[in-house]
Amino acid sequence: MGKLLELLKHPSDIFMIVHLLKFRVSPFPLDLSSSSEERKKCYEFLDLTSRSFSAVIKELHPELRDPVMLFYLVLRALDTVEDDMSIDPKEKVQLLREFHEKLKLKDWTYHGCASTERDRVVLEEFHHVLAVYHTIKPEYQDIIMKNTYKMGHGMASYILDNNFNLNGINTIKEYDLYCHYVAGLVGEGLTDLIDMAGFAKFEKRIEKYKLSNSMGLFLQKTNITRDYQKDMKEGRSFYPKEIWSKYTDSLANFVQNPQDRDAGIACVNNMVLNALDHVIDVLTYLSLIREPTSFNFCAIPQMMAIATLAEVYNNGDVLKEVVKIRKGVTCRLILESRTLPGVVRMFRKYLRVINHKSDVRDPNYLKIGIKLGQIEQFCESMYPTKALPAGASRNIKDINRYIEERGDFDAVGMKLYAQETMKLRACFFVAAAIVFLVVYGVLSCNWACKIWIYMNLSL
């Protein structure tokens, strides 16, 4: 009932949901009819373990689809081991550090997870993953193994870090490092896969990893900011002390003491400010992706992140619940994420939402304003909205060159979006016309019956 009321409050969401589910065209639909049983099983695992990534992974270019799917399942297996508190710490550390070695095997499974671990099936039937892993190109195998090694060792190091386990994250530098191990390395691995497939154009290795790290950090920091209440309920938090100590002497006060609500909101806003540091890198990274499905795959999570930041910013509900964006908004973001102009347009929209929500009483009011101004200026340099004075010329930057090198990539995507929208509107028009005619017919029939009855009674 709640979802129905939400749709009635936002009727445009219905349009977006129908567009996404019925009219959006997938260039490479997944066909498993002639696949091996192992491959079918892997995609079954993908559906079981991921609600958000499954659909977009299955729409990837065939060159990348299996490698990315396998990379996801391997990381899901790693996460399951790390999250399972029933596994002995020594065994867990050893397994995490040696997990990359398991990829060299043809038949390996693990049955040591608790029955409460939802994703344990990936480990218990990991031989299916290995079977498909050994069918992909060796270059892709090496990338997956390399990043599995890095992530496994990173996870193990945090398990052994007594200071982290007792005190959490202290400094912003530690916060960035933690997010790097949790999400930045995922970004590196995916970037290597995309680059190896020839679907991106990174000029320098150092630039590639700086940008990909920002992609991961932006997502992870958004999730951490949003999940304050959920994490506190589970007895943990990833807010760095360097930030929250400005507003309270105990992070739990924001939940326990209603009088600390304003301080809690200021803390959340500071976390949003920190996450916004990565936006320019995110947009730069996306400008370098040259294949439509890979672009879509990379852009969708970033679009969700900026919309989520706009939702949680200056929002006291973050302190008492997990704040989420509406389903209709999610559908709109997925639809808009097929082109760089669409992505930039939505980023600008949500940056302005944040700006409008800013409160002059917030301790970071000026810093937020400056940061938003910097990002807005960068977006304007990407796609100018204002005409230059007569005789003036624009200062061409690297980002302009990246956009120019994209060719007709975005024009094709925008044309496809427009065609889908026209078909959808035509269907809505026909449906509305049918409803009108039915209602009109019923009403006309009722009036005819009333007139006939009246005439007969008169006689």
UniProtKB/TrEMBL annotation:
Family annotation (InterPro entries): Isoprenoid_synthase_dom_sf, Squ/phyt_synthse, Squal_synth-like, Squalene/phytoene_synthase_CS, Trans_IPPS_euk-type, Trans_IPPS_HH
SUPFAM superfamilies: Terpenoid synthases
Cellular location(s): Endoplasmic reticulum membrane; Microsome
Keywords on record: Endoplasmic reticulum, Lipid biosynthesis, Lipid metabolism, Membrane, Microsome, Steroid biosynthesis, Steroid metabolism, Sterol biosynthesis, Sterol metabolism, Transferase, Transmembrane, Transmembrane helix
Cofactors, names only: Mg(2+)
Transmembrane segments: 428-449
GO molecular function: D-glucose transmembrane transporter activity; squalene synthase [NAD(P)H] activity
Topological category with respect to the lipid bilayer: Single-pass membrane protein
GO cellular component: endoplasmic reticulum membrane
Protein name stated in the entry: Squalene synthase
Single GO BP term: farnesyl diphosphate metabolic process
Primary localisation category: endoplasmic reticulum
